[in-house]
Model the fold of this input.
Amino acid sequence: MSDKPHDYCGIFGVFSHPDAALLTYYGLHALQHRGQESCGIVTSYFDEKKGRDVMPMHKDFGLVLSVFDDSKIFKRELKGENSIGHNRYSTSGSSKNPANIQPFRVHHKNGNLAIGHNGNLTNARELRDRFREEGVLFQSTSDTELILHLISHSREKSQMGQILDALHQIEGAYCLVILTDDKLIAVRDPNGFRPLALGKIDGAYTVASETCAFDIIGAEYIRDIEPGEVIVIDREATENQKPVSYSLDKQEGTDSSQCIFEYVYFSRPDSKIFGENVDKIRRNLGKHLAKEHPLDKIIKNYDADKKPIVISVPDSSNTAAIGYAHESQKAGLECKYDIGLIRNHYVGRTFISPGQKSREQKVRTKFNTVKGVLEGRPVIIVDDSIVRGTTSRYLVEMIRAANPLEIHFLVSSPPITHPCFYGMDFPDPEELIANRFNRDPVAIAEEIGVDSVCYLSAEGLVEAVKESNDSHHGYCTACFTGDYPVPVEFGSEKEENEIV
Done:
């Protein structure tokens, strides 16, 4: 298992474009980092032969490139000008259940409907128990199915009314793309935990978890979908260039709370999320890290002649390391940002390494050191997070073998200490290295084999983000602070009803 947190999903949608499925394919490819377990695409069109609207679908386990490796899929199956797509990451149990692969597609009295979901519903247990009492049968273990049941049980007359009725009954962190026979509906939860952006290509509207999905297809970024906003894109919206918008109310006593870890690790650095470029934010995290932990305070015998080397753990911490080096130089502390670790980008998630040294071998297969850069120098490793610490320990052993003078491990986020109930997958709290060693940086440093470990403070993290993004929305820091902005059902498991 990877020693990094995971986001559950990436979603994409496009309405009224002749190459809808192909654009969705490219969009999912750009969002591959948000989920690698499975993926799928659903399209919609009117079938002349059948005399009715249809929703063809293609989905399977695996990466986008392998699931859609046959071009005939787009010519023969995924016809139509409207499409949604989904990349999924799951916890271990549900990853084996094909019923959990999204998008989900259903047929009901008001026509076809497909849905893709990113996030977690915090009232999932309550809803699931209610439906069980009513005798409802479940096909999957996903929160997303609950939304479909809410829609089908709604007493509202119109399909749009049923969808809005369902949305008013769910709580938590979620972004949705919903495809009907004549509409694309994009939804962001009232607290705005997860990112969702609106774009346009060739006059057609498109939505995506991150703007890197727009860049790959040449779409124009228009704006973020606002927290609590439900955007309805149909023929009229396309012709008038103005989608209809509805609003969902926040739970009483809660405020907007965008996931700050999206900036730290999840999102691609070339994306714009929550209204700001990820690269810009990460550089600022590195700068604040340098202010809180200056080189001359952490290196035992700082000597400008033996210039310290600042390296990143590629790729997610690259720009934070650049920010740290730049701010250190600005403060008159000589150092050099360099490439000390090379990442092998051709290692798949299914790489098999039997034997006792399985995890260590995976690290060595994924990374290698540049010994000439590291030898005889103090080395500053900048990473975005330490979760269990296993990967960090193996990386440090590799770097030690290159004979540096010292090794210091700097983290551009605070210690992760609490579980996330809003769509991130962390290990159990007792497995987190910060909890195992009572947040003691000296003990953590000894565990992973470095001379020192330094974390960015929670206050410094928030300050660094707000300094670079003047958005009026707040941020969720629950995984660092235990301050949960939306009430959660503690002790409940996301996939407690897994069928094996």
The chain has two domains: 6-257, 278-343+357-481. The CA atoms of residues 192 and 199 lie 18 Å apart.
